[in-house]
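## Example pair
The file below holds two records. Each record gives the amino-acid sequence first, followed by its structure token line.
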Amino acid sequence: MVVTMDKRTLGRSGIEVSALGFGCWAIGGEWWDAGGDPLGWGKVDDDESVRAVHRALDGGVTFFDTADVYGTGHSETVLGRALAGRRDDVVIATKWGNVFDADRRTLLSRDLSPGYARRALTDSLRRLGTDRVDLYQLHIGDAGFAEAAELREACEDFVREGLIRAYAWSTDDPARAAAFAEGPHCAAVQHRLNVLEDAPEMLALCADRDLASVNRSPLAMGLLSGAYDAGSRVGAGDIRATPPAWLTYFGADGRVAPGWLPRIEAIRDILTSGGRTVAQGALAWIWARSPHTVPIPGFRTVAQAAQNAGALAAGPLTAAQLAEIDGLLT
């Protein structure tokens, strides 16, 4: 694995990416589950999203992670528009497995058949305006092992056909990630990791199997942005306002769930060392945690893109700072 502060490789694929990626969930705009609860991050301005992607590129970010279901296709469309003319300068990751109604912007179900994977890939390529996806990721974290084995072989077919360069599983289960990693072109696992929620088993697996650790929720769904206090409340239309069971950072009233803010305050001085913002310090912790990590914070504005990209200049925390944080949080 090639490791510098600015660049890392996606596991054994040899694909070079910036050490920081950008997650494109939020730029998909509003979408809902079948019961009408929000699954997006609220309304967005597509022109601002495009400008934010361009600002990320200017800041050295070359890795962009999206999914076909974000905004029921809209995130891929906006990302494709933003990257027009720059395709060979970037690495694009997207995901599949969810079935949705794009007209109603509604999530319907999931489909784990190889045939659906091929149809989903064809649609993603069209929306992204490209002829290949660099990292294609299974988006159903609890899929069965037998289903995953079939999909792993389907991904190997896609690699042979030149439709994708590598593949991964978005899952928090190391056993599932290990099963997918049996495929020769599996290059990564996408999993939750941030300074408040470590994932030592998954990081050990990535080191053992030479997989990239692509880190979702690196800023704990915005908690580590420094923008929230006990009085803050997420607005309507945001998934954090009526969070599903797996989203533990916010309560049913859209406020920060109990227990998180004191933990952030305990480590604030370390995170903000060297002139960093809290968010930049949280990203610096991830880089210090493992040479395999590639955090993918979300964004909606040029200002957010600039702040996140600015973390690259400050680099990782030191080993001593990492140990100090561990002592404060345990």
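Second record, same layout:
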Amino acid sequence: METRVCRLYAPHDIRIESQPVEGPGAGEVLVRIGAGGICGSDLHYYHDGGFGSIRVREPIILGHEVAGTIEAVGDAVEGLSRGDRVALNPSRPCNECTCCRQGLRQHCLNMRFYGSALRFPHEQGGFRDLIVAEAFQCVKVGPETSLAEAAVAEPLAVCLHALARAGAVKGKRVLVTGAGPIGVLTAAACAHAGAAEIVVTDLQDAVLEVARAMGATMTVNVAREADALEPYCADKGVFDLAFECSAAGPALSSAIRSVRPQGTIVQLGVTGELPIPANLLVGKEINLIGSHRFDPEFAEAVRLIDRREIDVRPIISGSYPLEEAQAAFARAGDRSRAVKVQLTFAEG
């Protein structure tokens, strides 16, 4: 048995190749992938060969936002059957290291995460027709939920974890900086959690339109309306919470200026060093919190998508068959035309 894979050799050098795939072993299932979302990390690998100190040092199969249908079930697997449609959790913590024992599995010291170049040899990803996964990675979805929707569970889980880091959202005034996939899904999660006001900023009108469809009560194109947030900075700021999803210095500065004293900023956007107006951070006693990946939030994200309590369909900007991966990556990197671009895979 063989599967096609989407393998990156170097920046802009993606090749669709075939390789053998074996049946599932004990505790494993064979999944036929139906949809896979292109993430920001995939784009960094594709365009730049990595990000920060993380570099692609060997050919790597990309992709960690995937969903599919179970083709075969190995021994000692309970609760899963052939034909079940599942979202695949890309995280495989060891459950034995110091972080895992402290209940911080998203910080596992031996984490295996689909399509990651952090470790060497690299962890191969999910952009392939067939993949053998551990049964615990599979979270079932119902027949009314498309695999395209199910594949959005991973980025939504990132956002749900950020909300958990922030604390209570109900009734709060919220700022979201950056309307990429994480930004618009954070807006949707805040709307679901009962935020009173959700202002989303970005540099592109197209993605801000999607943010409105996902629950933003107001959007601001800061490239065109540079002073639009000034009223929110009055009297030491008015937002209770801010979620910084752009990894841009000016966005973090605007969040610090517009969040009220003792308000909270959750940093989701990942980059190198950012300048911080420390005098304002200290003077306003702002809580600046980092948020990294997820753990139990993945199953919750699948549940919210499956029940359409959060409708993720507006963020899916386009779907391309695997053989058109180059075109898919080109569109995914164009924020004037896309929020979330997905690959689709061959049926059985």
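Notes on the second record: Residues 153-166 form the longest helix (14 residues). The mean pLDDT is 96.
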